[in-house]
Automatic annotation (TrEMBL), chains A, B:
It comes from the Eukaryota. InterPro entries: FAD-bd, FAD/NAD-bd_sf, Kynurenine_monooxygenase. This is Kynurenine 3-monooxygenase. Belongs to the aromatic-ring hydroxylase family. KMO subfamily. HAMAP family: Kynurenine_monooxygenase. Its EC number is 1.14.13.9. The chain crosses the membrane at residues 432-455. Keywords: FAD, Flavoprotein, Membrane, Mitochondrion, Mitochondrion outer membrane, Monooxygenase, NADP, Oxidoreductase, Pyridine nucleotide biosynthesis, Transmembrane, Transmembrane helix. One of its GO terms (cellular component) is peroxisome. Pfam families: FAD_binding_3 (PF01494). Residues 4-360 form the FAD-binding domain. It comes from Lachancea dasiensis. It catalyses: L-kynurenine + NADPH + O2 + H(+) = 3-hydroxy-L-kynurenine + NADP(+) + H2O.
Length: 463, 463
């Protein structure tokens, strides 16, 4: 008889985990505390869902689990080749992401989730239970019996028994806290001083279409209105609309305590975006939409001994959204975990142990990178020195191929480079880059020959 | 009418808080989930209570709250002038703590707690409720109403309403987690790889008394058996017994998986202590006594806005016991909080806000110091270089008075120096000390005159 597993949380990572485990012949039950999102008839958009960008790690992980499923669930993605920077006067300037035209891809979180749930439904060995909120896990004391999961449902509580539990229940994970009661888990949560508010840019009117579809601005860029310590971003949806998000310090939001102040603030900083969103709508959103907090979570280990439980995705490593890696990293978790289960031929104790040991460095690396990228997105992208260094970085990347890979490329387009190795390589490259930049700035007066000599000398030393 | 406050936890910090608030005319209810410890008739010693050392910060804080109460609750302390280092052959060597005979003081945690509870009982505006386990706090949404505390009692739950709540409920604080649900609290918990087991050294037989009382070893020292990555310590109790604690890495404990292995381990490392404890008793303790984990907790902020709740003591900053500052720091929390309430004339919102802002640096400082002191206690105290530096440190402290104060003196005997300032001063002193030591070692061959010149030059530069 096959072993039974509870997957807690039917979000993106939970759905993919259920699919991956079902394909490995486990007897899977997928629990979700919300109702089935596919049944919601009204237009109740979740107003706290930052739009998603799926890139190489997410896609290769989906493909590793199932190539056909990957193709089906990703049919609606919109490629984004780079950033589009909007200045205060409404001027736009594109900055490519890749060296050779690589792109990341915008996708609506709700849509992707529904697609994944449809795939889950096709599998005979996955049961899905909505409106089941996990309240407790009673782990078998000796480590040999079943784990009893207690769920709060509509009016009562229900108990279910499983051989093991996989927690994909997000930043405020109950699975995690239940594991914490049974093992010495290091844990930290840190709020960054950044609040977010979701806004909505509707599809363009018929008369105003310069893009391939009803888009008011380029659908193939991630739009950024960088204003130093705050910013606005926008990602395209298939229907021509854009999901836009404002990020800024809490104190700033609290200082905008009247409709007049909000309007002045928006007009001064985001005049072109205000026209796209609609003044009335933008003011309403700033006044009434929920204000999200951004929290980083790190912990270790991720599992209980004896293969009783493990957490992956946001439950194990919640990060800020500024590198677009949260979901990608979560999907990669599923891939890594499955590879280890395959390697250890289903010996969960060994697989979970190795997962905690080996995955940790990569997870803390991407959490750190994501935190640091806020400054890059909201501020550096407008700095001349930054842009010069970025051009140099791109140039070296194109010339030296695999011997020089810009950090963004490693993180977003090179799934085969683990996060922590990307950071190590970047540290080496950055030293050279800063030096090179200084040399170039110094030799500018000496003219092209000086630059050429300096470049040649440095490149010769670098292998 | 006076404002009502729930103090959660009737441990050391909770009792002192109840007393301090009652003296400020608040209407106090003190809740404790355990039964009244004074009613326990059997000899059910708590086997996980590291003995306590109270020093200047603890004593001055008690005195700040109430000088008479301080005298009464501390009547049973035993002064400890220094460490007594035991080597493998049973040789003992004393190392003074202070420069001028200052001492820290051993006290039984249970005894001190009972004394404080007796003082609580004398106050008319404190009610005490035992066997009340906090399960939830419903904070008034608008911040203006009462906070509803839900307690699980014997068979049912009970609700109580208060103007505000002070959480003194220890490292696994429920008050803290309830505050976390209502504010963006940074939080981290980290386990150190150290397990502890409590042991018991009985009073000496009548025929074997070289000390003033039935003590088998000096009552006026903190005994340490330092063995590099593990150690044993012992603190005297009034009745002639010692509370002894073993500290060591978890893997070491797990490797001692038979009675024979434990016995060999103890005989090899702690032969003299084994005679004091009794071989049979020591083996039983290693096999059956609970094994404690050591966890560091840091968080910020400590309060909810609008003066609804605050956490102090271990609930806010759990630290490892190696600097003997856990309780001292907790008592100081009470003092600092009361000073701020006095300063802001009962405006809790202002007082709590300032507490979170100002107290944090000191709390993370002492958490860090305590963590680092494990190495000093278990290892450095046997190093010749360490001892030389310590002698030099003491010498400079005696010569330069307030211009040079060894770190241990600042932390344990100078309550007027905040923890974080002690660290800053120590960093400055340590640089000089390391330099001086190098100079002395280098000049040893040149003879006394070289040392004298080097010393004079350095001291002249230092003010």
């Amino acid at each position: 008889m096959s072993e039974s597993v509870a997957v807690i949380g039917a979000g993106l990572v939970g759905c993919l985990t259920a699919i991956a485990l079902a394909k490995r012949d486990y007897d899977v039950t997928l629990f979700e505390y919300r109702p089935d999102p596919r049944l919601s008839t009204t237009e109740d958009r979740n107003l706290r869902s930052i739009n998603l960008a799926i890139s190489a790690r997410g896609i290769t992980s989906l493909e590793f689990i199932d190539k056909q499923i990957s193709e089906r669930v990703l049919r609606d993605i919109i490629p984004m080749h780079g950033r589009m920077i909007h200045d205060r006067d409404g001027n736009q300037e594109a900055q490519d992401y890749g060296l050779f035209g690589e792109c990341i891809n915008s996708i609506d979180r709700g849509l992707l989730n529904n697609n994944l749930l449809d795939e889950v439904d096709k599998l005979t060995n996955v049961k899905t239970e909505f409106l089941h909120k996990l309240s407790q896990i009673k782990f078998a004391a000796a480590g040999t019996g079943k784990q009893v999961c207690v769920f709060a449902t509509n009016l009562t509580t229900k108990n279910y028994e499983f051989d093991f539990v996989v927690g994909c229940d997000g930043a405020y994970s109950t699975t995690r806290s239940q594991i914490q009661h049974n093992t010495r888990m290091d844990y930290s949560q840190e709020y960054v001083d950044c609040c977010y508010i979701e806004l909505y840019i509707p599809p363009a009117a018929e008369t105003n279409r310069e893009f391939n579809g009803p888009f008011a601005i380029s659908p193939n860029h991630l739009h950024i209105w960088p204003r130093h310590n705050f910013m606005l971003i926008a990602l395209a949806n298939r229907d021509g609309s854009f999901t836009s998000t404002f990020f800024g310090p809490w104190a700033l939001l609290e200082s905008l305590d009247s409709r007049a102040k909000i309007e002045e603030f928006l007009r001064h900083n985001f005049s072109d975006a205000l026209k796209l969103i609609g003044t009335e709508q933008a003011l309403n959103a700033f006044e009434s939409n929920p204000r999200g907090a951004l929290m980083c979570v790190e912990c270790k280990p991720y599992h209980l001994n004896r293969g009783q439980a493990i957490i992956i995705g946001d439950a194990a490593h919640s990060m800020v959204p500024f590198y677009g890696q949260g979901m990608n990293c979560g999907f990669e978790d599923v891939k890594v975990l499955m590879q280890l289960l395959d390697k250890h031929q289903g010996d969960r104790s060994a697989a979970f142990g190795e997962y905690s040991e080996k995955r940790h460095t990569d997870l803390v690396s991407i959490i750190e990178l994501a935190k640091n990228n806020y400054k890059e997105m909201s501020h550096s992208v407008t700095s001349k020195l930054y842009l010069m260094r970025k051009k140099l970085d791109t140039l070296l990347g194109r010339l030296l191929k695999d011997n020089w890979i810009p950090l963004y490329t490693m993180v977003s387009f090179k799934a085969e480079i683990p996060y922590h190795k990307a950071i190590l390589k970047e540290q080496r490259q950055k030293k050279i880059l800063v030096y090179l930049q200084a040399v170039i700035l110094a030799f500018t007066s000496v003219g092209a020959f000086g630059i050429y000599k300096a470049l040649r000398r440095t490149l010769k030393n670098y292998k």
